[in-house]
Amino acid sequence: MSTTIAAIATALSNSGISIIRISGKDSLEIANKLFRGTSKLEPNHIIYGKLVYNDEFIDNVLVSYFKAPHSYTGEDVVEINCHGGNQITKQILEIVLESGARLAEPGEFSKRAFLNGKMDLSQAEAVINLINAKTKTETRIAANNLEGNLSKKIKELREELVELMAQIEVSVDYPEYDYDEVEPTSITSLLDRKIGEIQHIIDTYEHGKYIKNGVNVAILGKPNVGKSSLLNNLADYDKAIVTNIPGTTRDIVEETISLGNIILNISDTAGIRDTEDIIEKIGVEKSLKILEEMDLVLYLINAEEGVTKEDFDILSKIQNKGLKYIPVINKIDLTQKMDLNGILNELKEHGIKEPVCISVQENSGIEDLKNEIINLFDTSDLDYSHELVITNERHKDLLKKSVGYLNDAKAEINNGQPIDIVSIYVKKCTKTLGEIIGADVTEDIIAKIFEKFCLGK
Fold first, then answer.
1. Cα(450)–Cα(457) distance, rounded to whole angstroms?
2. CA–CA separation, 407 vs 59, rounded Å?
3. What pLDDT is recorded for position 250?
4. Integer Cα distance of 361 and 331 in angstroms
5. 87-139 residue pLDDT tens
6. Would the pLDDT of 37 be above 60?
């Protein structure tokens, strides 16, 4: 890690400023080759001056120097603030590279920060989550984890489990000493508490994944029930083609919209019906297959036509899969109240949840539908300014694995096994928890995490 790296740390565009970041033992030497400042570069100072290469003026710049270990990466770091233009920014980077640095790999600055102890692995992952955040809530969660909320909790859990292992080992290895004997009941009680604490964190993932990745929503129903019109209404522009000809939508049309603090990834699907049209048939198959990837299904029923056997068949499939769904009766402006009540009663008799009644044409009931979606994915009970929430699948999987080891330890106690057998599973749990913060993690995992970062981070 002795090489000096450089990259553009800001978006490459025509803007007010751009920043070229340099990190490594030769950072200051490279800067001094190129910079003619109003004063000498000093740690934690921003100096104004000129960038010169081969006696040619390049740009007026501001240069800051951070001396190791007091920098983002823990190494000597220099940041050059130049005018924000594509060409000038790329030219200065090329000059820096020609002066002794090499181009940084994606996430290499943050990787060096991790390897130099400036942050742990969960905090490094919070950095990329913060950069990619799409909502204020996601930003708050990422900021909390960058501050170390998850790290602190994991370290606390590990310390208590390590202490338990030490007590077990002392009890087994030095029975002649007057130490308090470790009782199986007290171990079980401690394990139950730790399982509960870890499970509480795992339970936040359901909200966390929706906040980070959005809610995958499919608009499903027979042809000509208003699926594409509903998508256009929610998106607030004409995303999908709308005609009165059944089967217009033959492929999945996708759009992402914000609804409060929730991101909806909406898929408008081909109308489901028996058809001889080969292209439409492929679209129908896609519509049914996409259910496997959905968090929510909006199933549209045509109020004019009423609820049919095909509708009940598809709704039954949705229920059997255990999917969250909202039945939506559309075109209520084209039917009598008596007929609408008949549809509502028929749905109730078949055990279908209460539908939302709308008219996309008249923009009626849309707010009710939006509120129903928000209620299904409500996160108002979580205090994002303080509460620990996980959004990374890697963290969730490792936490579930940790709970599994603690349950194995409990099972050994219940089976009357010696308590030193218990410590084997507790040790596996502490190692797995350590993978979350990088205390026990392979180079392959580290590389995989940091390759998701941008070049300048």
1. 9
2. 63
3. 40
4. 7
5. 999 999 999 999 999 999 999 999 999 999 999 999 999 998 998 888 888 88
6. yes
- The stretches of 305-357 forming alpha helices (DSSP H) are 309-320, 337-349
Sheet holding 46-53, edge to edge: 35-37, 46-53, 56-66, 77-84, 15-23, 5-8, 102-103
pLDDT at 150 over 90: yes
Q: Is 386 exposed, middle or buried (0-12, 13-18, 19+ CB in 10 A)?
A: exposed
Give the N- to C-terminal CA distance of the chain in Å, as an integer: 16
| Alpha carbons 315 and 247: distance in angstroms, whole number | 20
Helix, strand, or coil (residue 329): strand
- Please, which residues have CB within 8 angstroms of residue 358's CB and are 6 or more apart in sequence? 230, 328, 329, 330, 332, 364, 365, 366, 368, 369
| Each residue's pLDDT tens digit, 223-239 | 888 888 899 888 885 54
User: Is the Cα torsion angle 285, 287, 292, 297 positive or negative in sign?
Assistant: negative
Query: How would DSSP label each residue in 231-259?
Result: HHHHHTS--S---SSTT---S-EEEEEEE
Residue 301 has phi, psi (to 5 degrees) of -120, 135
Angle ∠(314,317,319) on CA atoms, nearest 5: 110
- The answer for residues whose C-beta is within 8 angstroms of residue 382's C-beta and 6 or more apart is 204, 207, 389
For the whole model, what pTM was predicted? 0.79
Sheet with 356-357, edge to edge strand ranges = 253-259, 262-268, 215-221, 296-302, 324-330, 356-357
Task: Give the domains, in start order, of the chain with CATH numbers.
Answer: 5-117 (3.30.1360.120), 123-204+388-438 (1.20.120.430), 214-376 (3.40.50.300)
| Residues 363, 356: Cα–Cα separation, whole Å | 13
Compute the distance between CA of residue 138 and CA of residue 315 in angstroms, rounded to an integer.
33
Contacts with 56 (C-beta within 8 Å, 6 or more apart), sequence order = none
Polymer length of the chain: 457
